[in-house]
From TrEMBL:
The organism's taxonomic lineage, starting at the top: Bacteria, Bacillati, Bacillota, Bacilli, Lactobacillales
A molecular-function term among this protein's GO annotations: diphosphomevalonate decarboxylase activity
The organism of origin for this protein: Limosilactobacillus alvi
UniProt keyword terms in alphabetical order: ATP-binding, Lipid biosynthesis, Lipid metabolism, Lyase, Nucleotide-binding
Coiled-coil residue windows: none
Residue ranges occupied by any Diphosphomevalonate decarboxylase-like N-terminal domain in the UniProt entry: 7-162
Chain's gene name: mvaD
EC number: 4.1.1.33
Family from the record: Belongs to the diphosphomevalonate decarboxylase family.
Gene3D superfamilies in the record: 3.30.230.10, GHMP kinase, C-terminal domain
Name used for this protein in its record: diphosphomevalonate decarboxylase
Length: 322
């Protein structure tokens, strides 16, 4: 009873930023993301009748108690759903910095959901895997699929899942991740977004912003308009981070290098290079552009941040069994 799965991170182009049901992990709004080939998690799960508890190893180290409990709690959901009584060996390797705003939890729980389910002897639909992965990390629901993916907020467990909008993204859409600071952030995604839901006076308007942005970005995707996709994503990200500043007390994930990167991308855009930025819960900036402009953008950013702090990412695949 063992299986190995690989899942890739995804970066939201239209973000949800807040949950309406913490137990079922239901988001306040829909969202839409791009799965990336560059960052991924590979996880092996083996159920073992001789174990007295789950044994969890991440990146070659025994998992810290808080992380181990989160993983074990998720495995308990799998055991209950598929009538498995054994504890498990879990070995996970992240090709992505953890807790740095690069969606490590998305790839981690998508890979865990798939590996644990397959190890139990079941191969459910990808929609069912998406619903299960959501219970570990909200954004993991999107990492079950490749390419451009929509997460339907839903109203209950059955209706909150992701589905692909376009899995074979072959019209030039790419990202460069500027790795400004890959240390663990001080304010977690989960804690930050709930603080915003509870205290930011602009949150009701945010729901309307996302509704409008979802309609616009799906039209842009249908037209394969990279510039419009980038413009919508950048505006959406800035409005999300404005919610953080308006919370009580206000906070930000940005640092001086984040602002410098944003300014550089704005300057490139003003010079006729079509590029845009988006940021999640962390200081790292993701640049959205057409692959035809990759060299110009990469060289400009490398001169400022160093080539070793840049990661070019193309659209990636959905979860795979290895």
């Amino acid at each position: 009873m063992k299986a190995t799965a690989r899942a890739h991170t995804n970066i939201a182009l239209v973000k949800y930023w807040g949950k309406k049901d913490l137990k079922l992990m239901l988001p306040q709004t829909d969202s839409l993301s791009l799965t990336l080939d560059r960052f991924y998690t590979t996880t092996k799960v083996e159920f073992d009748p001789t174990l007295k508890s789950d044994q969890i190893q991440i990146d070659g180290q025994i998992a810290k108690p808080k992380v181990a409990k989160r993983v074990s709690d998720f495995l308990t959901l799998v055991r209950e759903r598929y009538q498995v009584s054994d504890f498990a060996h879990v070995t996970s390797i992240n090709n992505v910095p953890m807790a740095a705003g690069l969606a490590s939890s998305a790839s981690a729980f998508a890979a865990l959901a798939a590996a644990a389910t397959w190890a139990s002897g079941h191969h459910p639909t990808r929609q069912d895997l998406s619903r299960l992965a959501r219970m570990g990390s909200g954004s993991a629901t999107r990492s079950i699929f490749g390419g451009l993916v929509q997460w339907h907020a839903g109203v209950d467990d059955a209706t909150s899942f992701a589905e692909p909008i376009e899995e074979s993204v072959d019209f030039g859409l790419e990202m460069i991740a500027i790795l400004i600071d890959t240390r663990e952030k001080k304010v977690s995604s989960r804690g930050g977004m709930q603080h915003v839901v509870e205290t930011s006076p602009y949150y009701p308007a945010w729901r309307e912003v996302v509704k409008a942005d979802m309609a616009k970005i799906k039209m842009a995707i249908a037209k394969h308009d990279v510039n419009e996709i980038g413009h919508i994503a950048q505006t959406n990200a800035l409005r999300m981070h404005a919610l953080n500043l308006a919370a009580d007390p206000g906070f930000t994930y940005f640092n001086s290098q984040t602002l410098a990167a944003m300014a550089t991308i704005d300057n490139l855009h003003e010079c006729g290079v079509n590029c845009y930025y988006t940021m999640d819960a962390g200081p790292n900036v993701k640049v959205i552009y057409d692959q035809a402009d990759r060299e110009t953008i990469f060289n400009t950013l490398a001169a400022q941040f160093g080539a070793d702090h840049l990661a070019v990412a193309k659209p990636g695949p959905g979860v795979e069994e290895l």
